[in-house]
């Protein structure tokens, strides 16, 4: 089995590359900032040259508020790249895995969202993700779309990384305290992607949309408290001050779905993949951030 990973700079992409290296799985990986993934001829040439069994698109523009001002960049990352990849994969009959977000839902449902619930995004970020799902599904028969929970890692493009990366209490953040979600480790998400690819390599054909998130569902306030509690185990870490606000008080330009919880039973029944605990993975991420305090800049960039 050989994978082509597009978006190796993203949280999940970075962890997937590390996992593939340690598992000695054959793969090639590319940064989605490379303009190769816009030009159809360039994509076709790469696919023909490397001949992957699966393409995994982990490309992601993760900034929900900033998307309202950086529309073209958000569309490029979250829509145009998956559109171009799906078109090329269809021509060469290569299955593709594509990662998206629970922000395709409006958040008004009581209880977790299933794959049968109709998308109804409340912001531009969600609209672009929904469009990417639609174009991948309509272009490429052999597709697996995975909506992931609230992804976190030791990088700085997620809530945990921003909260602890610099550690100055005078630097303030804002969070909608009652927004409900399922935090999901980028490491676990990468493991799920690889597990799905291994099963697909056995010539099963469960194409379609799936949900994955770690357990359990918590509010942003509760997740914040868990991150701070873990950080207190490491004296070298100091969390920024966070203002907990209501949805109406949020200063960001994008509305948020207040319920972003995913039902993951379809993934369990189809692939036998069980949900893991985000609390266990959070402790590892915080420890990694603490360790990074003692590394020189040259090491951090590796």
UniProtKB/TrEMBL annotation:
<dbReference type="InterPro" id="IPR005913">
    <property type="entry name" value="dTDP_dehydrorham_reduct"/>
</dbReference>
<dbReference type="InterPro" id="IPR029903">
    <property type="entry name" value="RmlD-like-bd"/>
</dbReference>
<keyword id="KW-0560">Oxidoreductase</keyword>
<keyword id="KW-0521">NADP</keyword>
<comment type="similarity">
    <text>Belongs to the dTDP-4-dehydrorhamnose reductase family.</text>
</comment>
<comment type="pathway">
    <text>Carbohydrate biosynthesis; dTDP-L-rhamnose biosynthesis.</text>
</comment>
<protein>
    <recommendedName>
        <fullName>dTDP-4-dehydrorhamnose reductase</fullName>
        <ecNumber>1.1.1.133</ecNumber>
    </recommendedName>
</protein>
<comment type="function">
    <text>Catalyzes the reduction of dTDP-6-deoxy-L-lyxo-4-hexulose to yield dTDP-L-rhamnose.</text>
</comment>
<dbReference type="InterPro" id="IPR036291">
    <property type="entry name" value="NAD(P)-bd_dom_sf"/>
</dbReference>
<feature type="domain" description="RmlD-like substrate binding">
    <location>
        <begin position="1"/>
        <end position="289"/>
    </location>
</feature>
<dbReference type="Pfam" id="PF04321">
    <property type="entry name" value="RmlD_sub_bind"/>
</dbReference>
